[in-house]
Amino acid sequence: MDKIVIEGGERLEGVVHVSGAKNATLPVMAATLLAPGVYQLTNAPSLVDVRTMGKMLGVLGAEVEHHDHSITINTANCCTHEAPYELVKQMRASIFVLGPLLARHGKARVSLPGGCAWGPRPVDFHIRAMQDLGARVELEHGYIVAECDRLRGNTVHFDTPSVGATENTMMAASVADGTTIIENAAREPEIGAVGDFLRSMGAVIEGDGTDRITIHGVDELHAADAAIIPDRIEAGTFMVAAAITGGDVLLTGVRKEHCSAVIMKLKETGAVITEEELGLRVQGPVWAQAVNVTTAPYPGFPTDMQAQFMALMSVADGSSVITDTIYADRFAHVPELNRLGANINVDRNVAVVTGVKSLSGAKVMATDLRASAALILAGLVAEGWTKVSRVYHIDRGYESIEKKLAALGAKIERVRE
Ligand code: EPZ
User: Fold this and answer.
1) In terms of C-beta density within 10 A (0-12 exposed, 13-18 middle, 19 or more buried), how is residue 220 classed?
2) How far, in Å, CA of 333 to CA of 198, rounded?
């Protein structure tokens, strides 16, 4: 397994290009199952999770070719409807094939994803939505077994906004018989990306990006192409990298309007963030001010930025309270940050971070995707060497993060063990 080794103390300066969004690419890839044909996705990030979804489509009969930052997908011969445990256990987002398989084949057998590094992540919203659309769903031997001659439009209400369940429902409802209303829908930019892609395939959808989405089912869809939107979480991660090192970094390819909550919070810490012709410029403060953060569904502060922001707060001036209202147990990064000298105490879904003047490099272990990013960010400012093991976690969601950071002046390299 690879390690990432960092010698802290370098101020980051320069230009970094933000890659396409992992969390838009995955549902868009699943949506290609809805209609036979050849699809071309551009600005797609080169990530482990994207290749895993490609393997999943392959198992379902598609031909998938990855070339640099584009993906060609041919779903003309998709004939199977089973998403096997061996692949689903690698990536929870495999659940996105449930709606498209039901819509395309009238049946689906999708392994339950199980938990993830920081705890249980249920799929009950997905299952109930498919039942609302008329599917018969059973759980058998760890699999979701669903069937339905033709999905029919209905009102689908989510107790709390769910990104994946909203996307799954949009995909299934796009070819259902009748109209579907999704109430309390998630509003993330990735929802709009899925809506745009489905419309380009012939779907009739309005309201995506709001909490009420209307889908008028059509008889059939057709293949289309898509340019993937920028990754707002990668962008936020690099903004924190600039802030934590007191650096001066220009992010290109980013959509400022997708990052408002993170930008606002970073400005509260004293970072100067300005829009320039080529992108977003982030100038870090000499010493970040401690600020409180509570995660929330978009447009609130994203849970996917909680760990990264905690790294910044661990060396801030003062104490901050970080509350995660989306995942109560997404704090696996805390013990590892404390190994670097941070002073963080967690009680249920609340972390109290008492800023310290400096961190000291150490061996730490990545536990999940965003925790890995937090440890690397902390390593950028920790005195001496920080060695982050199990970096396969970070490769799931960041494209060559060590190369991008090295190009900004960080002393960082990947070491093959
Ligand atoms: C998406 O996951 C993202 N993944 C996650 O990003 C992100 O953390 C999450 O949304 C929240 O923003 C992708 O888009 C591929 P949810 P998803 O359904 O769809 C509960 C990353 O780091 N819930 O919006 O699985 C759930 O437990 C990843 O890139 C149910 O109870 O998240 C959570 O508390 C990690 N039942 C809340 O809803 C369900 O059936 C929101 O989850 C589904 C969700």
Assistant:
1) exposed
2) 37
CA of 370 to the centre of ligand 1 (A): 13
**Phi, psi for residue 333 in degrees, rounded to 5:** -75, -15
Q: Exposed, middle or buried by CB within 10 Å (0-12, 13-18, 19+), for 315?
A: buried
Strand order in the sheet with 350-354: 293-294, 319-323, 350-354, 344-347
- Mean predicted confidence (pLDDT) in 161-185: 98
Place of tokens 């670097």: 340
Q: Which two three-digit tokens encode residue 411?
A: 């002393």
Model confidence at 116: pLDDT above 90 = no
Instruction: Supply the pLDDT for residue 417.
Output: 73
Cα–Cα distances (Å) from 331 to 35, 240, 292, 342, 399, in that order, read: 40, 18, 16, 14, 23
CB 391 within 8 A of CB 414: yes
Q: What is the pLDDT of residues 305-330, one digit of tens each?
A: 999 999 999 999 999 999 999 999 99
Among protein residues, the one whose CA lies closest to atom 5 of ligand 1: 304
Q: Which residues line ligand 1 (CB under 6 A)?
A: 22-23, 26, 92-93, 121-126, 160, 162-165, 186, 190, 303-304, 326-327, 369-370, 397
Q: Which of 19, 22, 23, 369 to mutate to test the pocket of ligand 1 (most atoms within 8 A of CB)?
A: 23
Residues labelled as active-site residues: 116
Close Cβ partners of 120 (under 8 Å, ≥ 6 residues apart):
none
CA of 119 to the centre of ligand 1 (A): 12
pTM over 0.90: yes
